[in-house]
Amino acid sequence: MGILLAVSLLTSWNPLATAQLTIVLTHAAEGKNVLLPVRNLPEGLVGYAWYKGRHVNSNHQIASYVIERQENTPGPAHSGREIIQPNGSLLIQKVTLEDTGYYTLQAIKKTFHNEEVTGRLHVYRVTFRIFYM
């Protein structure tokens, strides 16, 4: 029975090599800090660049990060609240409703065959209702 189970597990195993670079869809309350997490980073990276919007556009670059030096460099779309983490994720501090939208990560490889992925952030307003009894 143990051998049958082992064979069954091996035939249904899916290697991680097919995993795609992804940004996890994120929701956040206005005023909170939010992390746009990245999954399945490729091997051989030298850095990252984050952009506001669905495309890589130097005018919309939030920041870039050099892995070897662990250095963040702000871009034209940097508001002073964004930090790229060593794992490629983007931290946005004190999010506003205007931060809602698409964000694109460019994973920069040594070979310069870069990978790009786009994710979405939704910021919602926190409202309070007072009930009188």
Would you give the CATH topology?
A: Immunoglobulin-like
Largest sheet: 6 strands, mixed
Rounded to the nearest angstrom, the distance between the terminal CA atoms is: 65 Å
**What would the principal axes of the Cα set say about the shape?**
elongated
Q: How many β-strand runs?
A: 11
On the 0 to 100 scale, the average pLDDT is: 87
The level 1 CATH classification is: Mainly Beta
Count of alpha and pi helical runs: 1
Structural class: mainly beta
Question: Cα-atom Rg, whole angstroms?
Answer: 19 Å
The total domain count is 1
Order of helices and strands: HEEEEEEEEEEE
Low-confidence stretches: 1-17
Corresponding CATH architecture? Sandwich
Sheet-strand content, in percent, reads 35-45%
Family: Belongs to the immunoglobulin superfamily. CEA family.
Protein name: Carcinoembryonic antigen-related cell adhesion molecule 6
Keywords: Glycoprotein, Immunoglobulin domain, Signal
Domain Immunoglobulin: 23-124
Brief account:
This protein has one helix at residues 2-12; strands at residues 22-23, 26-29, 34-36, 38-39, 45-52, 61-66, 71-74, 82-84, 90-92, 101-109, 115-124. By secondary structure, the chain is mainly beta.
Describe the structure.
One of its GO terms (cellular component) is cell surface. The chain has one helix and eleven strands, in the order αβββββββββββ. With 133 residues, the chain is mainly beta. The protein has a single domain (27-123), classed as Immunoglobulin-like. It has a six-stranded mixed beta sheet with strand order 2-11-10-5-6-7, with no helix packed on it. Residues 1-17 have low confidence and may be disordered.
